[in-house]
Amino acid sequence: MPVTNKLFTEAFRAKTIDGLVLPDRIRNDVSHGLTQNILLYGPQGGGKSTIARILIDGYDTLLLNGSSENGIDVIRDRVVSFASAVSLEFGAQKTKVIFIDEADGLTTQAWDALRETIEHYADSVRFVCTCNKIDKIPAPIQSRFNCVPVYPINKAEEDFMFAGYCAYVGKILTGIKVSYDEETLQQFVRNSFPDMRSILNDIQKLYIQDAKELNKESLVKTFDCSDLFTLIVTGNSPVENYKFIMTNYSTSPDDALLAISKSFVDFLTLNYPQLSSKIPYIIITTAEYASQMQTAPDKVLVLLACCFKLQEIIRNV
């Protein structure tokens, strides 16, 4: 199937542990298969679900999403039912797997029920969980898992993974006939590292745009909300700025502010290096508005205020 007919996040998803860019610490933890329950945690896009899919391949598996299937009834009705059903192979009980993606979305009651289930079916069922925030997983549950942080935990791991990401992304770009130089490639990877999902989505943007070269101009187009970033730096009319934000981002203020938090500094570094002295103030301001966004009754107002404040900082008003 032509790669354009598939999401790049799926077309280039690793099928084996050897196909993943992992430091030895993580590779050693997952290379022995499901000899114990395993909980993979870390930021989005780092490979948790991919590792889990590889580990559960070939097993009779119940798949659950903790964000939407998170109550005690799910544990009682689906998990216990699946775990208690006899599955034989050559006359012996066959090991089964319960995979809970985004497990940090489970309720406290669900975790209480799951703890007993994990112990009761320890001989015949392995549990695989993924989550972003390990602190949302109760300590008694963590103690029943091999908890593996799926992100670089020191400078050596970060350097190893970054180099591996660059090599992998370089192969993909070559495969889709997009040329690049090493400096631009590293900037491209650094913008989203270690979120490989975001990097693959950005590569697909280049492919859809029929880019032939990864350069400064094409790199800018991979930033989410690049038009908003440009407006913050160059927009001179408060009225026109307001109209632009209301027209383009009033339905997605959370996503817009998240993009500012995640990528605006990189956007400035790449396109407006003369503004680098403003970066500390931009980070502090963005953090303040991001915290307000969590409880604000009008999130669009928070986004507008953040954008106008950043413009003040940039213009040193």
In short:
By secondary structure, this protein is of the alpha/beta class. It has helices at residues 8-11, 24-30, 48-56, 72-84, 108-120, 139-142, 155-175, 182-190, 196-208, 216-221, 226-234, 238-249, 253-271, 279-293, 299-315; strands spanning 38-41, 60-65, 88-89, 92-93, 96-101, 125-131, 146-149, 179-180, 213-214. The strands form 3 sheets. A 5-stranded parallel β-sheet has the order 2-5-6-1-7, sandwiched between helices. Strands 3-4 form a two-stranded antiparallel sheet.
Give an overview in words.
This protein is an alpha/beta fold and 317 residues long. It has three domains: 24-149, 3-Layer(aba) Sandwich (Rossmann fold), CATH 3.40.50.300; 155-221; 226-315. The protein is 54% helix and 11% strand. It is built from 15 helices and nine strands. It has helices at residues 8-11, 24-30, 48-56, 72-84, 108-120, 139-142, 155-175, 182-190, 196-208, 216-221, 226-234, 238-249, 253-271, 279-293, 299-315; strands spanning 38-41, 60-65, 88-89, 92-93, 96-101, 125-131, 146-149, 179-180, 213-214. The protein has a five-stranded parallel β-sheet, with helices on both faces. Helix 5 (108-120) links the parallel strand 5 and strand 6. Helix 13 packs antiparallel against helix 14, helix 13 runs parallel beside helix 15 and helix 14 (279-293) runs antiparallel to helix 15. The protein is globular, with a radius of gyration of 23 Å. It starts with 7 loop residues before the first helix and ends with a helix. The model has no long low-confidence stretch (mean pLDDT 90).
